[in-house]
Amino acid sequence: MQLYRQNFTLDEYEFLTSSSSFQKLTQSSVSIKYPDGSLISADKVFKNLTKTHVTEFVMWFHDESPVFLPATVKTLCQYLAQCGNLGIFYLYRLPETFDVRQISDFLKLPSNIDIVLHFEASISDECKEILSKFIKEIIENPPQNIPLIQYNEQDLDDLITLMALKRERRRS
Asked: What is the CATH number of the domain that holds 103?
């Protein structure tokens, strides 16, 4: 199922994604809001994935996309751990409110999920520093599941090393 430039209430989105009749879900420029018009937290987008047979989930964020609150990434990881069929999980144009450090415990779990986290171009230098340190930690002590993390002005050597580790881990 591909959703592009759609506006949904949370109830509409949950109804739409509660079906187990699709295996791939791609969302781009999708807005999901509560009935009062406020944006939902991003973990709500993934809640129904635990009940479906989705094997691929790809989401492109934009200004009206669900938001990442402080606890959102941890909750997202709890949902991902329950998605036995999920093989691809790609998030593009992530805002810097996505705290990548909160996924470290999830990455240590045995998993076959291919994870790509691509951050939007306008992230702050502070966020870039956090991402750089996180990538260096992955390189120094590779977890079970190695994500591909991308952002503008990224250290090219670290990116190449991360990609090589990811490829090596997928082969084993």
From this structure: 3.80.10
